[in-house]
Amino acid sequence: MGVQALERRSPPQGSALRIWLTGVRAAFAGRILPFTDITANEHHFTVVTRNTADFVNTGVALINLWLA
After folding, report:
1. Are residues 39 and 27 in the same domain?
2. How far is CA 62 from CA 35, 38, 45, in A?
């Protein structure tokens, strides 16, 4: 569930999540890359995701921790 959806459904919980997410984004500023298969290939990254279907035919190295 996204932050906005939670804010609409439960404003106190949504507000708490929004504050937490703002802190996470500030803590990792400059270290989170906009991510595509092109980015992964260019930098020889391994993509760790549950949604491997979107990357399976791109040639990037994949790890699905939910299946490991």
Report:
1. no
2. 14, 14, 9
